[in-house]
Amino acid sequence: MPESVDSPASSRRGRVGIVCHPRINLSGPPIVNAVQLLERGGFRVWTYCATSEERPGALTEDLDGTRLIVSFGGDGTMLWTAQQAGPAGIPVLGVNAGRLGFLTQVQLGEEGAALQRWAEGKFTLQRRSLLEVRIGDRIFHALNDAMVDKGAEINFIRLEVSIDGLAVGRFDADGAIVSTATGSTAYGLSLGGPILHPEVEALVFMPLNPHSLFNRPVVIPERSRIAIRIPNAPSVLICDGQLSVGLPPGADVEIASGPTVQLVQFDRERNFFHLLRQKLRWGLPLIDGDEP
């Protein structure tokens, strides 16, 4: 359960949550220093260690009055935090303690200065759309992508897909993935999908390893509603790389744009194209040198 750390003068400024990867020690210097800095600024602080087994709504009881959630970890921790914070309308600040850190804003060790700037109001908020996935009365959210996958099935599965009530096609494939603009640089990139700027209001639909020579990713409006039916085989739903639920034969999955999450931003120099160059080496020569 989250630990609440209160200070006598903290009631006026609200609460700040800290979500961290399980490998990050809550008693270690980065977390302790962040808590102390926030407490000195008059905030109440709660902490939580997220795992891949967590389910939607894990933080519901702790979000009331929370003004910011700080994610300590890699992109996986950031994705899970965004799933919780977005529906509650709480901004997220990502601190990269992982490998790639494509979504996080600051590096581990920079969190003190970042929190100070946030407390002083010296930041901007960038809107990112979440996917909302419905299976019956169950709802899941994803910042990057939602995938229907064959799971343990050896053979491909049949998927019947429609968008906004219009028949799109029947696909014999390992599954299908719907990604946001944010997720276009994640799994969708490795599938050969397009890179979308995060401010583009669009979704990308991609079959997974279809048994066909002619299937390509399709970019569709963000307001689209995608329906996927798996008529004959069991499958699984995976949101942001985390297994969400098993699906029986005949399952219907509805995917659409849902709530948004706001990411705290500081440095305009660290823009999207800077990230593509720094993290993915897009736009860089094969061999670094001084030649134009």
CATH class value of the largest domain:
Alpha Beta
Q: Detail the poorly predicted runs.
A: 1-11
> What is the CA-atom radius of gyration, in angstroms?
20 Å
Q: Tell me, what's the shape? A: globular
Helix content: 10-25%
Structural class: alpha+beta
Order of helices and strands: EEHEEHEEHEEEEEEHEEEEEEH
Q: Number of folding domains?
A: 2
CATH topology of the largest domain: Rossmann fold
Strand order of the largest sheet: 1-3-2-4-5-6
Beta-strand percentage range: 35-45%
Report the CATH superfamily of the largest domain.
Probable inorganic polyphosphate/atp-NAD kinase, domain 1
* Biggest beta sheet attributes: 6 strands, mixed
Average predicted confidence as pLDDT: 88
Q: Which CATH-level-2 architecture of the largest domain?
A: 3-Layer(aba) Sandwich
Compute the number of helices. 5
Give the distance, in angstroms, between the N- and C-terminal Cα atoms. Answer: 55 Å
Count all strands and give the number. 18
